[in-house]
Design a protein that fits this description.
By secondary structure, the chain is mostly helical. It has one domain: Orthogonal Bundle (hpI Integrase, Chain A), CATH 1.10.443.10. 49% of the residues lie in helices and 6% in strands. It has ten helices and three strands. α1 packs antiparallel against α2 and α2 runs antiparallel to α4. The longest helix is centred in the N-terminal third of the chain and has 14 residues. The model has no long low-confidence stretch (mean pLDDT 88).
């Protein structure tokens, strides 16, 4: 076994939200009659359904929405990537940014404002928790690890593998499928 790297489980796994928890947060935002509630709803839905980083969300332009994809230009590490999205999310983003010119930023909000919105509707939750939750839901829904790596923009598959541990509740189900 000499020379074979031993990957230890991190001491503290990232926090994720269940679909019910996310639905509750989104329902609370959707039923808030305050100014910007529509923006907040679409913004949080986008974080969860795309796995975007906050920095990518706040720089998202109308012209970055293409058919059923979001194009990320110069993401973390200066990398470009394509993130698939459903037509329902695409339509929400384009409808919200309807009056914007293609080069305009959709949400026109700062990182701090994004965090304040999240704290208002989900105290103690961080924006990156939506990204972690996206990854786990993607894997549990049948997405493969390599595709997830590409969507998240990870250079190394090992970085993405943490989500296999987080979705580990399914490990027992997979184990039980084996005929011994």
């Amino acid at each position: 076994m000499k020379g074979i790297p031993y990957n230890q489980t991190p001491k503290k796994l990232p926090r994720t939200l269940t679909k019910n928890e996310i639905d509750t947060i989104l329902d609370n935002v959707n039923h808030d009659n305050k100014q910007h509630s529509r923006r907040n709803y679409i913004m949080l839905l986008t974080l969860w359904r795309s796995g975007l980083r906050v920095s990518e969300l706040i720089h998202l332009k109308k012209s970055d929405i293409k058919e059923d994809n979001i194009i990320i230009h110069h993401g973390k590490g200066g990398k470009d990537r394509i993130i698939p999205i459903g037509s329902d999310l695409r339509n929400l983003l384009l409808t919200y940014g309807d009056r914007l010119q293609p080069e305009n930023i959709i949400f026109a909000i700062t990182r701090k404002q994004v965090n304040n919105v999240i704290q208002k509707y989900a105290p103690g939750i961080h924006a990156h928790t939506f990204r972690h939750s996206f990854a786990v839901h993607y894997l549990k829904g049948g997405g493969n690890l390599r595709s997830l790596q590409i969507i998240l923009g990870h250079s190394s598959l090992m970085t993405t593998q943490i989500y296999l541990i987080l979705s580990g509740v399914d490990v027992k189900e997979d184990y039980d499928k084996i005929i011994w």
